[in-house]
Amino acid sequence: MARRGDEGCCAVLHLNEDNARFGLLATLILLYLLCGAAVFSAIEHPTELRAKKLWTQHLHNFTETHGISAEDLKAFLRTYEEANVYGVRVDALRPRWDFPGAFYFVGTVVSTIGFGMTTPATIGGKVFLIFYGLIGCAATILFFNLFLERIITMLAYIMRWFHERQLRRTGVLMPSDHRRGSGTSAGESDSLEGWKPSVYYVMLILGVAALLIACCASAMYTVMEEWGYFDSFYFCFVAFSTIGFGDLVSGQKEYYVNQGAYRFGNCLFILMGVCCIYSLFNVISIIIKQTLNWILKKLDCRCCRHCRRKHLRHHRNAVNPAQIKSRRNDVSVDTVCDSETDGRRMSGEMISVKDFIASNKVSLAIMQKQLYETANGGPRPSYARHNGFSGGIGALAIMNNRLAETSVDR
């Protein structure tokens, strides 16, 4: 009975932490958007005004020089804009809807890049795109998640190997200590078995890999597309991050030297870049979550323990009221909900078996369990004990599970 009351306390506190984290993240994203809008408006808006003024002047000079009315010229330009939708350009470009062009298009669809330089113009094409993109995007996201799982596993193996070498070099671990069954002290065993890869090292490795891919791809685009190197690097980020503005698009000229090799290299670089940036984004999201936890912890330090107890008493009728009431004098919030995971949450280590559960709860399943017990006056049949990574879906859950397997179950 006391255990159920403790779980109820943790459920309420974790739910409040999740709500606070969600609200803080939403506020920070809104501030981030406002700051970004202010910066881009200050940088780009003057150039937009100058370009609009210059275009108006050119339009006026052209109509005066050739004796064409402004209305007729605008009608002609609108006709060109309509033809532009179907792939007609002033400069000679490769066909948009031959098989290689269509293959490039579907690649941008399923990867969610969506450059926008080619779009279906017929009703049949638009209808087919809806169903094709629905399945294709889902399958590609699954591929990215599986790639993330494998890259994190590989990095964990490599980093563990370096960690073992460092322990042997310092004399903490003997060459045979890593084998099961060898005679090792508890401290030596814990120094290896308790090790977890650092999220910052993983971020650094993925960042360097993405940077190398982008630099190599930029060198290729500078030569083949005749772009500036910075423009090529900008295109790599826009493409690899699947933002896909479409202002710069590779592989659109009618002819290239070594065209087949270039198109293969273009697809390969984009595939590798998207996978690396996708993995990097997911690692950065963990660091952002750690930062949110740190901010909330700092804010929470200003609240007295009395306020937290008062908050629990206020919610005792919602979750396990009887148990909380019976133990409110001898159960401390810090004792119930603070564990070794809370102290290590900001350590920069990348997810042990217990760590990440502290920053991911409370799940809907726990709340449903508590409400069920309250309504029926007794506990539900017990579930299998979670290993700390059983909750969650998507890329973060895959990453956490793989890190737990590769860094702990050895």
User: Taking all residues together, what is the mean pLDDT?
Assistant: 75
Low-confidence runs of at least 5 consecutive residues: 177-184, 316-349, 351-365, 380-393
Order of helices and strands: HHHHHHHHHHHHHHH
| Class computed from helices, strands and strand pairing | mainly alpha
**How many DSSP-defined strands?**
0
| Total helical segments | 15
How can the largest sheet be summarized? none
Backbone CA Rg:
29 Å
Q: Between the first and last Cα atoms, what is the distance in angstroms?
A: 36 Å
Q: Classify the helix fraction into a percent range.
A: 55-70%
Percent in strands: under 5%
Overall, the morphology is globular
In short:
The protein has 410 residues and is an all-alpha fold. The chain has helices at residues 2-66, 70-85, 99-110, 123-170, 186-193, 199-224, 229-240, 259-300, 305-314, 321-326, 333-337, 340-344, 357-360, 364-376, 394-407. It is globular and about 85 Å long.
